[in-house]
Design goal:
731 residues; alpha+beta; 3-stranded antiparallel beta sheet; 21 helices; disordered C terminus
Length: 731
């Protein structure tokens, strides 16, 4: 099915009715939206570092904007981006069903490649994180995207996959409702601007309808090139003033039109009805369905109607948006760093201006003079070596000395900065600055202790970011599941694959069978600079202790792993290429791990050192649980049954060997008795134990081998008592 099939061909009366609904919802929500944007415009101004206009008569007074909000946001921004997109950051796929375990490594590597390499998510996600920190919440538009261009009349696909477009807060309009997620709003509106050419291309792709039919009207509207509305775009207007460019009525703009993309609930007409009032349930369905409607407000024209259930059939939350908030305190519009720190920045600005004025008074002397002395203060300027003609210098002019107490200003500034550190958890040391507090740490241990305490506060934000990022990744995977082609090539090295899936020509293929599973996703944060240095010290200390431990020093595999870990911590990831891994010793495997290995597609084998009775009990329990699992893996169950039979055979073989040894020991003991092997009276042959060959008159076991019935879980610790009959079948 192509996207052209998703455009709903409703009667014109129904199209006009839902268009009026879009315009009504937009106008009703824009008033509440404008109040929030007016508040957030001040946050944007603080981020841009714009200075306040001075009052009349105070143009020469100190008016330096102390960028306290800006430097804290910069630090927080850098920390989160380093954690998200650092060198050792990766995405881990957590399987939900039992049959998904064998593909989780491949899915994790694919999503890591998709997010970090294919989507080139670093730059757009950087904007997303900044707006979350600055305003407290960020929203991004994330549909499936297919970007193409033509070469010689042929279409070339430049990119096909999930898209990620961070939205300006101005362009995301929602009603005044108390919700926890954007999917709970009765409607949301995305405002965007596009060109007539993009509308034509979108009609070919199935996004719009009626573009060719009304193209002349659209072009006539687009010739004006309006880039800003006069209301609801306060944050963009603040940006425009900082850039020095006016977008409201530009003379150099090209062809642009404004589109309102409305996601909301609507009761569609019944199949037999052609028209009907919005509240006439005799002609309309009783339950609402979610639609997306694209609307040109300047032309009062609907250019697209689609059913979200058809666009995103397997998603629970069908609106193609992702979001993240700074503080999870139960509010949808949570506070960001600007709101947290704006009052402290105002106090720092006032304190700075007062200290500046005090310094000016101290450096520029205040003079008292006699009016009849001939001194003119309007033309007077203090210069080195300047002489002032006076009748009596001792009485006609006097310099008033002012001694400013700047220690108070310094103390106040340190207090305000300390308040901010307690609020954000970011100290001078975490910002890469030398601490100048009176209680600054004196030793390395004290420094590390302060950093760790600060990390406790920051870890709260990291946990929130990890959960929000997991939802973003799950959204990407849902799009992959619905829209990806049957086979998708992705780049991965053999070292990263670690033998868990096939790699050819520097990459692998993700098939439709690989995507047919349920996964949760977790972002493995990159280690910070402090963590990497601390891990280096820990790795070296652990390596020195391991070399002195005989359990490791005498085990080649353990010693190799320890040495490799030390090399990796010191920045050498190629130790395994220099020194190959030694063969693993023949050790028993925990039975709990064997079924997990089968689910991952790995091979397992019986080991002579295994406790077969314990393995049989554990595997029988695993088989019982697997048979009742709705997401069971038949291939893994079949292999476990075979493995179960191998343990039975090995247990019987061990019993045979034990019986032989016991019989041999019994007759050997008789041979060692006094008088053994001597001839009996009357010329009778010598009895066993007296030098005659070893004999077992009742067979190897003293009788026929019988298998007692029962369940191995009910048997004693030293007696095997049978196994389930359904495991004896030929499989």
């Amino acid at each position: 099915m192509t996207q052209e099939d998703f455009q709903l061909k409703w009667p014109q009366a129904e199209i006009d009715r839902i268009g009026n609904r879009v315009l009504h919802d937009y106008r009703a929500a824009i008033a509440d939206h404008n109040r929030r944007m007016a508040k957030w415009r001040e946050y944007m101004r603080r981020w841009l570092g714009s200075a306040d206009l001075p009052d009349e008569g105070e143009e020469q007074a100190s008016n330096v904007p102390v960028p306290y909000v800006k430097w804290n946001i910069f630090t927080k921004w850098a920390k989160e981006m380093d954690a998200l997109f650092g060198d050792d950051a990766e995405i881990v796929a957590v399987p939900v069903g039992a049959s998904d375990y064998r593909r989780d490594a491949k899915i994790g590597k694919y999503m890591t490649w998709r997010v970090f390499n294919s989507m080139k998510l670093t730059n757009p996600f950087s904007v997303f994180v900044l707006r979350k920190i600055l305003f407290g919440r960020a929203v991004a538009y994330s549909p499936w995207k297919r970007d193409t261009f033509e070469v010689g009349g042929k279409e070339v696909v430049d990119y096909e996959g999930p898209d990620f477009c961070p939205l300006w807060p101005d362009d995301f309009i929602v009603p005044a409702e108390e919700v926890n997620s954007l999917h709970e709003f009765s409607f949301v509106v995305r405002r965007y601007r596009t060109t007539p050419d993009d509308l034509l291309k979108g009609e070919r792709d199935g996004r719009y309808q009626g573009i060719k039919k009304n193209f002349q009207k659209i072009v006539n509207l687009a010739k004006h090139g309006i880039q800003r509305d006069f209301e609801g775009e306060e944050i963009k207007l603040e940006k425009d003033e900082a850039e020095g460019i006016l977008y409201q009525r530009p003379l150099s703009s090209g062809e642009w039109v404004t589109v309102l993309e409305w996601y909301g609930k609507w009761r569609p007409l019944k199949k037999s009805a052609r028209d009907g009032d919005e509240w006439d349930f005799s002609k309309r369905e009783m339950e609402t369905r979610e639609f997306v409607v694209r609307y040109l407000p300047d032309l009062h024209m609907v250019i697209g109607v689609q059913d979200l259930a058809e666009l995103y059939p397997t998603k629970k939350k069908r609106r193609p948006f992702v979001e993240s908030s700074m503080v999870k305190d139960g509010r949808y519009w949570s506070e960001g760093f600007a709101q947290m720190l704006i009052d402290l920045e105002d106090e720092l600005r006032t304190n700075h201006d007062q200290a500046t004025e005090a310094g000016q008074l101290a450096n520029s002397p205040v003079l008292g003079y006699r009016p009849a002395s001939g001194f003119n203060p309007e033309t007077f300027k203090v210069e080195p070596g300047m002489a002032i003609p006076l009748d009596n210098p001792a009485t006609d002019l006097m310099q008033i000395k002012i001694q400013p107490n700047v220690e108070v200003a310094q103390w106040k500034e340190q207090c305000v900065l300390a308040y901010g550190e307690k609020l954000t958890g970011m100290s001078d040391l975490q910002m890469g600055r030398q601490s100048d507090r009176p209680n600054a740490p004196r030793t390395a241990r004290q420094t590390v202790a302060l950093l760790e305490e600060g990390n406790v506060r920051i870890s709260l934000d990291s946990k929130v970011l990890r959960e929000d990022m997991a939802e973003v990744l799950a959204h990407f995977w849902d799009l992959e599941y619905m829209f990806s082609p049957e086979q998708t090539f992705f780049r991965v090295t053999e070292e990263d694959a670690d033998g868990l899936f096939e790699v050819n020509n520097g990459g692998s293929i993700l098939t439709i069978e690989d995507r047919d599973g349920r996964y949760d996703f977790r972002l493995q944060f990159a280690n910070s600079v402090y963590s990497r240095e601390a891990k280096k010290e820990q790795a070296l200390a652990r390596y020195q202790l391991d070399l002195q431990n005989p359990l490791i020093a005498q085990n080649p595999v353990a010693l190799w792993e320890t040495t490799r870990a030390a090399h990796e911590a010191l920045g050498d990831p190629n130790f395994d290429q220099l020194v190959p891994r030694p063969p693993a010793p023949d050790l028993s495997v925990d039975p709990k791990e064997e079924f997990v290995k089968l689910l991952h597609g790995e091979e397992i084998h019986v080991n002579p050192l295994d406790n077969d009775q314990l393995h049989l009990i554990r595997h029988y329990s695993d088989l019982q649980k697997a048979e009742t699992d709705p997401n069971k893996d038949p291939d893994a169950i079949k292999k476990l049954v075979v493995h179960y039979h191998e343990h039975i055979a090995q247990l019987q073989q061990k019993k045979m060997q034990q019986a032989v040894l016991e019989q041999a020991a019994h007759y050997a003991a008789k041979l060692m008795q006094p008088g053994a092997g001597m001839a009996q009276p009357g010329g009778a042959p010598a009895q066993p134990g007296g030098g005659a060959p070893l004999q077992m008159p009742q067979g190897l076991f003293g009788g026929n081998i019988t298998q007692p019935p029962g369940n191995p879980q009910a048997a004693g610790p030293f007696l095997y008592s049978g196994h389930p009959e359904n495991l004896h079948g030929n499989s």
